[in-house]
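Subject line: Sequence and fold of a protein, written as structure tokens
Body of memo: The sequence and its backbone structure tokens, given next.
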Amino acid sequence: MAVICGLLAISSVIVSGCSGNGDKPGKQASTEPVARQYYIFDTVVNIKLYDDAKAEEHLDHIDTMLKTLDKELSRTLEGSQLYKVNEEAGKQPVEVSENTVAVVKRSIAYAEDSGGLFDPTVGGLVDLWNIGNGGEHVPEPEDLQRELNLVGYKDIVLDEAKRTVFLKRPGMVLDLGGIGKGYAADEVARYLREEGVKSALVDLGGSSIIVIGSKPNGDSWNIGLQDPDSSRGISVGTIRLNDHVIDTSGIYERYFIEDGVMYHHILDPRTGSPAQNDLKSVTILADNAMDADALSTFVYVMGLEDGLQYMENLGDDTEAMFITADDKIYVTSGLKDSFQVSSAQYTLVE
């Protein structure tokens, strides 16, 4: 018997109203935010704009942008470009937009860089497990092997000159959900910055947030990281950010329990099953959402030791935090002075 635990409503990141200047309050913001909610790639997106005289105009434009991207990159929207690519798998190339080319190209690069731990052709496995969509169950071994045999990013043929995408084998399913939402968020953030917006929040389903600029009063945004074992709004710790992205992949987001065993939604492309590594969550801080989106997924699959080493070796401003099953928190060197634990349950490992 499967027990379905839909915890999508629990945000992985929590925006706090705390001041970034310790006890010194910043100046009062002149306006309340103008907010709007959207739906793209089966995910709720919330955007808040502060001190923006053209907020409604900007939000209308974003609505058009997101609807266009959904028609290009959504795997489940019938008639979308990606839907057609999957329909024509093993048959013929499909002409796509520049946006789709950019996301497919980047997904292949992530796959190569991660040694296949990030693989955008896991769509068949995602459908088979169906975690979070109702009907979750442990697949039969023969079904799992069938879909696992169709995973292989090297069988994606991308022709940038002709702007076409082709999957070599019938039955392959390309799924850009691992970075498509990040790409959409980056496009929204780019537009807002070009329009001169100085203070905004872009929230993708609670697991990923882009903070644009600073808070309206000039302070840094104070971001709380969701306690994996607690209800919404309870944080394990906080970090202050300006112009940055924070993205979390955690086993508590979508999972089900069958015969006393928990199965979460983060699949290992090597086995076709949920990754097993005693991690509750991985959080990535980066300067763009597409990198953060991909990294949080495949670094989770790497596990603590390999994932921590990989992140330390990146050599840029990208940072990571790992929460283990025994309630220990590990952070990369760039976070040691800025992350503050707020829960007595957890221990920050120095």
About this structure: The CA atoms of residues 72 and 81 lie 5 Å apart. The domain at 2-19+33-60+197-348 is CATH 3.10.520.10 (T-fold). DSSP finds eight helices and 19 strands in the chain. Confidence is low (pLDDT under 50) at residues 1-12, 16-29.
